[in-house]
Amino acid sequence: MPHIENKKQVYAVGGALQRYLSAQGRSVRLPVRYDDLLRYEETTPVYDKQGRDTLWESVLYPSAERRAISRALVETYALLRVKGDMSLVEHLVTDRVDVCTFGNTQPFRIRILNRINENFDYFYVKRADASRIYGLELEHLLSPNRIEFLYDASTLIEEHISGIPGDVFCREYLEQPHLDEVRVAKEFVKFNERCCLRLLGDMHSGNWVVDITPDFDETVYRIRAIDFDQQSYEGRYRIYMPQYYRENNPIIELGIKCMTPETVKQYQHEERTLTVHRMRSEQARLDALLGVMARDRIAPDENVVELREGLGYHYADPAFLQCRSMGEIVRLSLRRLAEATHDRR
């Protein structure tokens, strides 16, 4: 079983990555910074509908600062959703600010309320971390999903990714009579493959969600990562394979029950082919990103050595042993994928 023993280091966003983000419209002047949100006076626990502690705490700011912070957060939401057009969000207010003090990153979750229809949406304010940014951008380019985020100095703004948390899905949905077991198992195989190919780690059931969409007589399931801290950081190869996490065992057992090894291989090949198609569609942007990532340091040197040796053995490819950074390892992994897919044609 993969196990992450130590807290991940946070890596500063270097000049080359900043220039890339600016070129892609990800770097903006934000109305609020992460440190601004640390000036709260008190907190109260947030419980779910079943009365369980969510590990989030709602914060309260001094009265003198409350209005300014609330307004700045609405302006930030406007930048994220409508490129800063405040005329489209005049009816929105900041309903609640939560902080998660359980983990090492301590993110803030912002709930924005529509006063007209009482609908609400979330976004997150986090400390900027280079490896997290690479993870978000690779998700945007290589997965079936598009994802919005903004960067400014030490602050990262992320959109909320909707879905049923993986641990809740495994606990409460797998036994439902109308569950399409084959479609769920297929999606997990494809999700596992995407994580392996782009080296996104720590995908236990608390770090992904299931998006369920009715479609005519069928139901479509999509598994989406929601935490990108462990993009190309750990040295052990199995860290990047969700199939090896104990928390994911219920969905693994479902796959064993309803799929054959031949079916699994078919779905793996399908996802590899789709990933290559996405790579070609975003070739210039992906090349620019990987070029910056290859020169960046986003993991300890010993992790780079361990991972390149593990992948070299796994793929029987000594080219991995020449990689000097996590970015170079990801680039080689994707290059091998593209070449293998081309050879099969």
Any overview of this molecule?
- The chain is an alpha+beta fold and 345 residues long.
- It folds into two domains: 15-159, no CATH class; 164-343.
- Helices cover 42% and strands 19% of the residues.
- The chain has helices at residues 15-23, 63-82, 130-142, 166-172, 181-198, 249-258, 261-281, 283-295, 301-315, 326-343, and strands at residues 42-47, 53-60, 92-100, 108-114, 120-127, 149-152, 155-159, 164-165, 208-215, 218-225.
- The strands form two sheets. A seven-stranded antiparallel beta sheet has the order 1-2-3-4-5-7-6. Strands 8-9-10 form a three-stranded antiparallel beta sheet.
- Strand 6 (149-152) and strand 7 form a beta hairpin.
- Helix 3 (130-142) runs antiparallel to helix 8 (283-295) and helix 5 packs across helix 7 (261-281).
- It is globular and about 60 Å long.
- It starts with 14 loop residues before the first helix and ends with a helix.
- 34% of the residues are buried.
- The mean pLDDT is 93.
Structural class: alpha+beta
Give the percentage of residues in beta strands: 15-25%
Widest sheet, order of strands: 1-2-3-4-5-7-6
- C-alpha end-to-end distance: 36 Å
* Anisotropy-based shape: globular
Q: Tell me the number of strands.
A: 10
Report mean pLDDT, rounded to a whole number. Answer: 93
Total separate domains:
2
Rg for CA atoms: 21 Å
Largest sheet: 7 strands, antiparallel
SSE topology sketch:
Blueprint: H1 15-23, E1 42-47, E2 53-60, H2 63-82, E3 92-100, E4 108-114, E5 120-127, H3 130-142, E6 149-152, E7 155-159, E8 164-165, H4 166-172, H5 181-198, E9 208-215, E10 218-225, H6 249-258, H7 261-281, H8 283-295, H9 301-315, H10 326-343
Antiparallel strand pairs: 1-2, 2-3, 3-4, 4-5, 5-7, 6-7, 8-9, 9-10
Helix pairs in contact: 3-8, 5-6, 5-7, 7-10, 8-10
